[in-house]
Amino acid sequence: MKEVDCMKLFAGDMKELTRSKQVHKDLPALPTEKDITRLAKNCRNFVRVYGFIMNFLTEEERNFPIAYSILVFKDAHQVTQLLQAIYRPQNVYCIHVDQKADQSYRDTMAAIADCFHNVFLASRSVDVEWGRFTVLEPELICMRDLWPFKKWKYFINLTGQEFPLRTNFELVRILTAYNGANDVDTVETKLDDRLSSAGPPPHGIVPTMGSVHIAVNRDFVDYVLHSPVAQDLLEWTQFVAIPDETFFSSLNHNPQLGIRGSYKGDLPLLDTRPEMFANKFYQDYSRVALECLHQRLYNHTKDEFLGMMEFDTSYYSNLAFVNNTVTAEEATQILDTESTFISALNSLTAMLGMF
């Protein structure tokens, strides 16, 4: 961004910050939904204008595809910038358009998706309301839509108001350093008021509270979609306040469930780590910040590709949730024990039925 010195802004220069506020007022109007839809009719031109990277860049990235869900409802240009920033041809992207969004916005998102083989709109749209089950529902829809794509290794969920702080290469390095661990926040808090109307959780699950934003391995998504225990917990969370902050966190912090990568340490999880994404950007007043982040991400991507920049993952590989995780072997053992118990219980029930 030529109008401001982004490096000074990142360094906290107050004079440049003050100047950037005036620059923001003088910036030209952003592309409208109609502009973007018109541009996307020529996909090659759309890709060129927005600067999409249509190459996997490194073998390491090629061999570590990531699945994304993106919940959107406004600001088509900002969503396009987000998609451009995280796009690689080996990844796969599910875009959920809020049911409240008007048809022109949905048409714009559909036009964008049509330009890529690995971007699609969610199979179903819901009317998302904060604090309700509908905040969680789009994530589950996208998980199910993404599941048939067999190669992705981790799932990350975003909203249209977020932007990456890491390049795709760095994300791959971080997720590789996780070694199968699931990145699901939790905090120690009193849940009595939130759970009072729901009754006790099923299957002896100890409920926890965390963020709906997650980075989880494929086995976690498999469990969410196909485990009867997860389905029972999902049914239960529909009666708690803010279910989206309870469901994923509770699954990941009950290691007795046998989910690979879940956390088996003591609560609370208090690691403070360099985040992979920042959220709550709004193009109406965060435009300079977004442009500077975009420039930073581009420069880092270029320098990494040219071998001019290294990325140290030792911090991430030493996080508590990475070193206190349910391994694949432990998960198999837990699930086999549970299966044996259920089989024995069914046999006993059948025998008793004979008398």
UniProtKB/TrEMBL annotation:
Keywords: Glycoprotein, Glycosyltransferase, Membrane, Signal-anchor, Transferase, Transmembrane, Transmembrane helix. The keyword Membrane applies. GO terms for molecular function: acetylglucosaminyltransferase activity. It is a single-pass type II membrane protein. The lineage of its organism: Eukaryota, Metazoa, Spiralia, Lophotrochozoa, Mollusca. The keyword Glycosyltransferase applies. Its main location: membrane. This is Protein xylosyltransferase. Belongs to the glycosyltransferase 14 family. Pathway: Protein modification; protein glycosylation. One of its GO terms (cellular component) is membrane. It is found in: Membrane.
